[in-house]
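Quick one - inputs below.
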Amino acid sequence: MKKHNFYAGPSIMSQFTIEETAKAVHNFADMGLSILEISHRSKQFQAVMDETVALFKELLEIPEGYSVLFLGGGASLQFAMVPMNMLSKKAAYLDTGVWASKAIKEAKLFGDVDIVASSKDKNYTYIPKDFVVPADVDYFHYTSNNTIYGTELRKDPEVGARLIADMSSDIFSRPVDISKYDLIYGGAQKNLAPSGVTFVIVKDDALGHVDRPIPTMLDYRTHVKKGSMFNTPPVLPIFSALQTLKYYKQLGGIREIEKMDIAKAETLYNAIDGSKMFVATVPNHEDRSIMNVCFVMKPEYKELEKEFIDFATEKGMVGIKGHRDVGGFRASLYNALPMESVNALVAAMKEFEAKH
Ligand SMILES: *Cc1c(COP(=O)(O)O)cnc(C)c1O
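Output:
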């Protein structure tokens, strides 16, 4: 039987994505060949690339003047590519955790970084609100969903600067007003595809404004010009991404997905808030992620945390151990996770609580 998969990433994929990928591994596009062994220059794969870009744009309602790229290197390479391509003098960053800090570290290699606010004082359990972005920055960068701490900024911020966001772990979980952004990026391995491909949505006229020389492979313009085919792209993850996008369209698009995601998150947060044993690590409801739900046991039950993980594991749940920086538990409720898995976790929590 399939496990209840709460892993934070790589994470659960839709059954549709897995099955269609498996078929293509055996016989891709009736070529009598596996997707693993075909040329990325074949017309069959070019069709996959074209359809993936088109469907990505359609589902996210990406306006004219933007390119969608599928690159290697993970979101972590974007931490450096963004400032290399976009930072002339100074950029503003919001520090909301480990991933944001890693982005800040890379940006400092290319210019001045103004950290406009940080939630480090409370181990990143909230989203800073009252910060001011200086008018003279090249851009403002933030992480929309903080995968490790379970905080999320679900509204496109209004800061009066060019916007750049790492949306690795909440892309396709809410409508985004793309026109407010110069660039959005993310690793695919949370809501889109198996690991190995990184998506980048970039406004074409935001490029070409820095003076430094940029290595060819690290220059967004190279990939815009070549349609992500300058070199060999991650063929298999792109094929899988297309299957996920088809599945999302079948579900009714992002607005429908968002409703399901909110329902799943509410079910779990309500169970945590109503429990005597468990407590959410993010107190402010507005800051709570609908993708990664972090919680711990109250101090008087703390020694039972390990036992609860074993209890949940026996019931077929995987991936609920919290990140080492937070402890306790983290249940990732990505788009592909069915409500049934959330219900199973809630039932396990109630049963465990009754037992003690
Ligand atoms: C997972 C994650 C990353 C890291 O992605 P890689 O593809 O492993 O480099 C970066 N940012 C966020 C918000 C993430 O969740």
